[in-house]
């Protein structure tokens, strides 16, 4: 009996944990709406040292557990983007998408609905983890194609580093960025809906002519030079006007970060998170401390980038160290 129990145990695959980063768009140029409702983008993504961890484990009772900051506002049913990743790969590999025989445990370190690709990160992590758990042997390119079906930001969450994104943001080319840049991240009290921010930009463009970010080339040169002062002058996001229009308080946050000593601040993606570029790691800590005292946001964190994309942590769920943060 003892031997039998041991042999059954030995065939249950070990849980797989993947760590996956948040992103910020250093440059986000939004074209007109396409017939399919998406907007044509030219964007530069950078992966930051704020991470989620997703563990997949074999279980008869399917489901999702979510822990960490903002866990209460993350759906645990079929609308969770990570669960959609499970269903996609289950279907691909001939499993029943309704009974895939796995559970997910998600540990959130990326703000929810913050414009930092939190849900996309979890979907990317799930694709990578299931590829390992189910021994699917899909290459990075194939995983990226599955990722693009789930959301425009998912391929970048898999790739990480710094990358130029075109199409709806899913077509990627890595960008040379040998240097580490230091950021202060200001989290807002409530999230913003990505489609609502794109719709607001369309509305603003019908009404007036909001400024558009320029060409991307100078920013790529600044990244290659590694000089944060040069990069700071070139950060730009077409969605910023729309995010600020929906959440006017962001104007105050952006001003406060620069007053606190940051080189420049931008709304991250569709917002409402704001990202402030600093000269170095020490400056970022000083800016974070001062910004947290300004009372303009919920929490302030420091982060650096670029960091790698979704990555297997180990075969055991690991304890994730708490990222440095300062409570406002
Ligand atoms: C704002 C960004 O985070 C910048 O990287 C992304 O463009 C958003 O990427 P995402 O959250 O993965 O977005 P998706 O899940 O693909 O799309 C959600 C919605 O955002 C809008 N959307 C998204 C991407 C894009 N290029 N044009 C769009 O108009 C569409 O209304 C779409 O229905
Ligand atoms: N795994 C997930 N983590 C967080 N939110 C999720 C997840 N799956 C689905 N959601 C839903 O998606 C919404 C947007 O969450 P998410 O954190 O992905 O936003 P975001 O970071 O602004 O996205 P992006 O930057 O890619 O536009 C949330 O309000 C939540 O209801």
TrEMBL record:
Catalytic residues as annotated in Swiss-Prot or TrEMBL: 23, 153
Region ranges (Disordered): 308-328
UniProt key word ATP-binding: yes
Catalytic reactions of this protein: 4-CDP-2-C-methyl-D-erythritol + ATP = 4-CDP-2-C-methyl-D-erythritol 2-phosphate + ADP + H(+)
Domain of life of the organism encoding this protein: Bacteria
InterPro entries associated with the record: GHMP_kinase_C_dom, GHMP_kinase_C_sf, GHMP_kinase_N_dom, IspE, Ribosomal_Su5_D2-typ_SF, Ribsml_uS5_D2-typ_fold_subgr
Residue numbers binding ATP: 111-121
GHMP kinase N-terminal domain: residues covered: 80-161
GHMP kinase C-terminal domain location: 219-294
NCBIfam families: ispE, PRK03188.1
Protein family (similarity comment): Belongs to the GHMP kinase family. IspE subfamily.
Protein name: 4-diphosphocytidyl-2-C-methyl-D-erythritol kinase
Organism: Saccharopolyspora kobensis
């Amino acid at each position: 009996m003892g031997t039998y129990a041991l042999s059954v145990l030995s065939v249950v695959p070990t849980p797989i944990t993947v760590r996956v980063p948040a992103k910020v768009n250093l440059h986000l140029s939004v074209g007109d709406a396409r017939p399919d409702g998406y907007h044509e983008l030219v964007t530069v993504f950078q992966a930051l040292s704020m991470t989620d961890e997703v563990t997949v484990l074999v279980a008869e009772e399917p489901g999702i557990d979510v822990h960490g900051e903002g866990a209460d506002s993350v759906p645990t049913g079929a609308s969770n983007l990570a669960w959609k990743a499970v269903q996609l790969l289950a279907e691909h590999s001939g499993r029943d998408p309704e009974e895939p025989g796995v559970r997910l445990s998600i540990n959130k370190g990326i703000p929810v609905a913050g414009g930092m690709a939190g849900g996309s990160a979890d979907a990317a992590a799930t694709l990578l983890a299931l590829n390992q758990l189910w021994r699917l042997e899909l290459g990075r390119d194939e995983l990226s194609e599955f990722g693009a079906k789930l959301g425009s930001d998912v391929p970048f969450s898999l790739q990480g580093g710094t990358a130029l994104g075109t199409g709806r943001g899913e077509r990627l080319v890595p960008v040379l960025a040998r240097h580490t840049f230091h950021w202060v991240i200001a989290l807002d009290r409530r999230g913003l809906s990505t489609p609502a921010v794109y719709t607001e930009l369309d509305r603003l463009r019908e009404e007036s002519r909001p400024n558009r970010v320029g060409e991307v080339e100078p920013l790529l040169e600044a990244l290659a030079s590694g000089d944060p002062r040069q990069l700071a002058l070139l950060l730009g996001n077409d969605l910023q006007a729309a995010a600020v229009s929906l959440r006017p308080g962001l104007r105050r946050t952006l001003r406060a970060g620069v007053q606190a000593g940051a080189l420049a601040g931008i709304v991250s993606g569709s917002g409402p998170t704001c990202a402030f570029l600093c000269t170095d790691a020490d400056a970022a800590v000083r800016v974070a401390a001062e910004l947290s005292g300004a009372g303009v946001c919920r929490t302030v964190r420091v982060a650096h980038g670029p960091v790698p994309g979704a990555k297997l942590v180990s075969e055991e769920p690991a304890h994730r160290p708490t990222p440095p943060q300062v409570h406002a």
